[in-house]
Amino acid sequence: DGPTRQVAGLRPVGGRPLRAGTDLMLDGELVGRVTSGGFAPSLDAPAALGLVAAAAASSGTTLLAATRGKETAVEVVELPLVPHRYVRN
Questions:
Q1: Do the beta carbons of residue 57 and residue 14 sit within 8 Å?
Q2: Which has the closest alpha carbon to 9: 63, 70, 66, 85?
């Protein structure tokens, strides 16, 4: 049946970074947790990684994260967050 959880790239909407341990919700249900996050200088925006239920790990899904007592919208994005820019021979 496959894994029940997957690693997902997360991009918060707005400038509020996510931190490790932040719960991720979808339709009022706990679907995952942030494993690492902060400001990504390469993206010039906050970014994070999280373990998310497989059903909620598809790119484009919008989740809610409780950061500092407020809800922050978080978009699930494809990994890697920064595309590789090197040439393989």
A1: no
A2: 63
pLDDT tens by residue, the chain, 89 residues: 789 999 999 999 988 899 999 999 999 999 999 999 999 998 999 999 999 999 999 999 999 998 777 899 999 999 998 888 888 87
Pair 11, 75: CB distance under 8 Å: yes
Tell the residue number behind the tokens 């990684």, with chain if given: 49
CB 19 within 8 A of CB 74: no
Dihedral of alpha carbons 11, 29, 7, 48, sign: positive
pTM: 0.87
